[in-house]
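Recap slide: Protein-L-isoaspartate O-methyltransferase, sequence and predicted structure.
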Amino acid sequence: LVGPDGEVIGVERQEHLLDPARAALAETAPGRRAVIRAAHPGVLGAPEDAPFDRILVSAGARRRPPALVAQLAEDGVMVIPVQERMQRVTRRGGEITQSTHGAYRFVPLIEDSS
């Protein structure tokens, strides 16, 4: 997902998973430009760091989240499970396209501040 000069930003909504995720990252990717931070309540992704070339969502959404699509760079790609179907969403020439790739189950995407 990331080249040798790339940067990875992970956003975790579950507070109790932050430390284990950071420890795993430090162990498997020492010296890489990567960070895992707590999600802001009511905010999807990391809009303050957008746009992104790649977005990988590891939670199932009810619909394709416009807030995450808005964070895609030109020629950016997002992979996200929507209604138990894996979608590849691409922004190219200002247009958004998607393709569907198989059925999967994920924990639900938390889209509100609760």
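The longest strand covers residues 72-82.
Residues 15-28 form the longest helix (14 residues).
(End of recap.)
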